[in-house]
Amino acid sequence: MTVQNISTYQAPKNLLEQRVIVVTGAGAGIGRAAALAFARHGAVCVLLGRQIPALESLYDEIVAAGAPEPAIYPMDLQGAATHDYEELGLRLGEQLGRVDGVLLNAAMLGTLSPIEHADSEEFARVLHVNVTSSFMLMQALLPLLQAREDASVIMTSAGVGRRAKAYWGAYAVSKFATEGLMQVMADEAAATTVRVNSLNPGTVRTRMRATAFPAEDPQALAMPADIMPAYLYLMGPDSKGINGQSLDAQAPALEV
Predict the structure, then answer these.
(1) Residues in CB range of 121: below 8 A, 6 or more apart
(2) CB–CB of 50/76 below 8 Å?
(3) What average pLDDT score do residues 234-239 get?
(4) pLDDT class for 4, splitting at 50, 70, 90?
(5) Nearest residue to 151 (alpha-carbon basis) of 97, 89, 100
(6) Tell me: domain 2-250, CATH 3.40.1080.10, correct?
(7) Which residues participate in catalysis according to the annotation?
(8) How far is C-alpha 36 from the chain's CA centre?
(9) Is 234 helix (H, G, I), strand (E, B) or coil?
(10) Domain segments of the chain as ranges
(11) 0.85 cut: is pTM over it?
C-alpha cells in the first residue's frame, strides 16, 4: 500500500470520535499541538505531563473549542515508579473504560557534549525519561489497547535516532532505543489489533529545538501544528495495517 505525502493528509472532522487517546508531554510543543488536533477531531484526550498549569491551560483551550472534555493526569516520568503506571492503567480502565491510542511524546534533551565529558547520572535520567518510562507506560496500557478493535501507538523518534551525530550523547542513544522498542512492540503486536510506529517530527519550533540550536532562526522552522496531519493519519483508522514503520512527519511520501 502506498500513501502519498502524509504531511498533507486531510483528516475528516470526525476521524477520532469515540476514541480515548493518551498524550505524554502534553503541556507544550508537539504534545500540546497533538492533543489539540486529536481533540478537535473528536477524541477524548488524556493530558499527561508534569506541569499542571500548562495542562490546565490546554484543558481550557480544548473545552473552549467545543471539543470533547479531556482528562488531566499529572505525572512526572522522571520520578514515577511501577505502581504509578499500574495505577494509571487501572484508573483509565475504570473511569474511561478504554484506551484507543497513545502518543509517547515526552522527552528530555540532556546536555549536548562529548561522551568523555557526559555526566553519568544525567545520561541515566535521559534514558529513563525517553525510553524506560515508555516501556513502563506501555506495559500498563497494552491490556486496554489490545481490547480495542483498532488501536494505535506513536513513538516519537528523531533524526539522530536513525543516524547519530557527535555530541548528541544520551538523547541520540535514547532515540535509537526508542526505535528498537517500537520494532519489538510492533513485531509482538503483529497478530493483534494494535499497531506501533515511530514518527520523526523533523525540524519544528519547540523549546527543546531552541535549546539544542540556539543560533537557529525559529522563523524558518515549522510550527508544531504544521506537522499534525501525519499524527492524525497514524492515530486514525486510515493507517490501519501500517505497523513497525519508522516514519517522518515532514517526509514527501510514505511507501509500505
Answers:
(1) none
(2) yes
(3) 96
(4) low
(5) 100
(6) no
(7) 171
(8) 13
(9) helix
(10) 2-250
(11) yes
